[in-house]
Design a protein that fits this description.
The structure is a single chain. The chain has 10 helices and 15 strands. By secondary structure, it is of the alpha+beta class. The strands form 3 sheets. Strands 5, 6, 7, 8, 9, 10, 13, 14 and 15 form a 9-stranded mixed sheet that branches. It has a 4-stranded antiparallel sheet with strand order 2-3-1-4, with helices on one face. A hairpin with a 5-residue loop joins β8 and β9. The protein binds magnesium ion.
Length: about 400
């Protein structure tokens, strides 16, 4: 017997941080919590939890108003505004950075904050995980979500559990074109991988269990640089996943993060580095503003109430992952401003690098070349014409 519908909304923004971009100030969290507390008292929210991932202020909320609800988004917006006031009073770095507009217009999407929301029919026991990453982008979830929901070497349940055996469907968003495609695994696995390997463009937005369309995961997919047209910080992503009872077990979800894969972000949103899973106490990005980090909080949702959290990466079982991440970080850092540590030219387009290159434009002179120049576009998947 399923329960009443409940919506889990995770809305986040970087509204300013302490001593650079590495960690939030506790007073900003308190200011946001005060707004949510008032919304809970008024019955708008059932429950909430305020925390941070590095310099990002994270609002985890439950309610019965569905996704994209103006009241919920307005509450989050007010929380960020109040927190920004405190950030400005304290002179925190980049105060109000992610709030791209002065006036709220009913929905925070496109206004700066990142949003992951899922309306669910609460199961008698409803374990969820909220993942929050800093110094990276939404595509950072592509690899772990693929492993969790499509790779039997990660998730034994895909083989063993009859409720999962049919597989999962992935909704993939093209963040440049604003289009989406849904692909089914295992049968379309290679097509899925052909897209989601391009993490800066194709992003897994939602995952559904194929047998009954039950939604199992959602990721925030806002891309601040495309929204703002200029670089205003990497759009550090959040995700909500449901666990157990015919879905991947909690341990199968976490297992995907035991490999610190390379993600885009880190210093100035312009570098690749390993994604390091950490407990909340280590959720601060210090070395070269990183390396990129991810925090995982486990809750039970009961009648909309958030029971918990459990700080899931606060476990010695992830020590070796962290050690490997540090070794990889040390190795790739030695490349300095060279690719592949620094991002490629398409991604750098939204940073301040083009201003530097512009200065050199008039200093290039023609040279005689023996062979015809070859122009080969790197974004082959974009459908743009290729000239060979
Ligand atoms: Mg951040």
């Amino acid at each position: 017997m399923l329960g009443e519908k409940v919506t889990i909304s995770v809305i986040k923004a970087d509204i300013g941080s302490l001593a650079g971009h590495h960690v939030t100030h506790p007073d900003t969290l308190a200011a946001a919590a005060k707004v949510l507390s008032e919304a809970k008292r008024k019955g708008i929210l059932i429950d909430f939890y305020v925390t941070h991932a590095g310099d990002d202020l994270e609002l985890i909320m439950t309610h019965r108003r569905g996704v994209d609800d103006p009241e919920i988004h307005g509450t989050a917006w007010n929380a960020f505004k109040e927190a920004t006031k405190v950030a400005k009073e304290l002179g925190l770095y980049a105060s109000g950075q992610d709030l791209l507009s002065e006036a709220f217009s009913g929905n925070v999407r496109g206004m700066g904050p990142g949003v992951a929301e899922m309306e669910i029919e609460e199961r008698p026991s409803e374990p969820i995980v909220v993942f929050m990453a800093d110094k990276t982008e939404p595509g950072a979830f592509n690899l772990p979500l693929f492993k969790i929901f499509a790779d039997p070497f990660n998730t034994a349940g895909l083989i063993i559990d009859p409720r999962m055996h049919e597989g999962f469907k992935f909704q993939v968003l093209d963040v440049y074109e604003g289009k989406s495609v849904t692909l089914s695994c295992p049968e379309e696995m290679y097509d899925l991988l052909a897209l989601i390997g391009t993490t800066g463009r194709y992003v897994i937005k939602r995952v559904f269990r194929k047998s009954d369309e039950l939604q199992a995961a959602v990721v925030s997919t806002e891309r601040l640089n495309l929204i703002a047209g200029k670089y205003v910080g990497k759009d550090d992503p959040v995700a909500i996943l449901r666990a157990q009872h015919g879905l991947p077990a909690l341990g199968e979800i976490l297992e995907a993060f035991a490999f610190p894969h390379m993600v885009a972000g880190w210093m100035r949103g312009s570098h690749y580095g390993p994604l390091m899973p950490v407990p909340e106490k280590y959720s601060k990005c210090t070395r070269f503003d990183g390396p990129p980090r991810i925090v995982g909080l486990g809750f039970q949702v009961k009648n909309g109430r958030l029971v918990g959290p459990a700080d899931l990466f606060d476990d010695v079982a992830f020590d070796e992952t962290r050690r490997l991440a540090q070794i990889v970080a040390e190795y790739i850092r030695r490349h300095g401003p060279f690719m592949p540590h620094r991002l490629g030219p398409e991604e750098m387009e939204y940073t301040t690098l083009p201003q530097v290159l512009e200065k050199l434009r008039d200093r290039f002179v023609e040279v005689k070349v023996a062979t015809k120049a070859i122009i080969r576009r790197s974004e082959m998947l974009s459908g743009e014409e290729r000239v060979d």
